[in-house]
UniProtKB/TrEMBL annotation:
It comes from Ureibacillus yapensis. Belongs to the flagella basal body rod proteins family. Pfam families: Flg_bb_rod, Flg_bbr_C, LlgE_F_G_D1. Residues 5-35 form the Flagellar basal body rod protein N-terminal domain. This is Flagellar hook-basal body protein.
Amino acid sequence: MFKGFYTVATGMVAQQRKTEILTNNMANANTPGFKSDQSTIRSFPDMLLSAVGNTNIPTKNSLSFSQINPIGSLNTGVYLQETLANYVQGTIYETNQNTDVALINGAMPADEESGEAGTIFFRLEHPEGGEAYTRNGSFTLDGQGYLVNNQGLYVLSDDGERIQLQNDDFSITEEGNILVDNQLADTLGVSFAANPNELVKQDNGVYRTIDEENLPSAYGQQGVTFSTQQSFLEGSNVDSAQAMTDLLTSYRAFEANQKVLQAYDKSMDKAVNEIGRV
């Protein structure tokens, strides 16, 4: 009976966490460059139950031997195994802001281990050292003319240096080159992640590598093609309709587990207060 309590409880916890992930996706449906999270629910290994007993042999010395009778398997519940980001590119839309830039994927080679396609990111200077990465190209110029993102993190060039401009009167080519008065001033830093699932997602659409090592530049990477588009942004790749459907499904599953838990509670109440009294 108590095993049933634990099994139902794991189902409720897993659905609650899935609901939190889906709710966060819906809350960021209009966040530029946001990548929706996907969760994977798996069951714990089944437990094999057996009855162990002794069988007596009517002999002079009263021999006996142990006997194991299989009863069957028992499911021990489920758990939220992992959460992975969906790196499919979002819709590109125009903003008419000169400092906005959208990354547009071209050819992205697949990772040999995972079989999934790689992706590209803007390079940012992380305040704790090293680099951070984002798909949100909503940039602006700070008081000193440095190009920064919406969190105030410095946007890096292909050389790994901060990009400083006199004003927002500049243009960005499809190749990522920043032109001032038709002269090359700098090149936007773009990095390539061969296996983006190894990145750690932080707040506001910022990513870092697990070992905090810098990703290689996307420029010149074999098989990688991309372009940049000024005055455009990449929208969130959250499918609001699908997220709402999944959210309702998860909520119904949570309710079903809750009703089973209540049934177990009533059975235990009868076992203790009624059957136990007899």
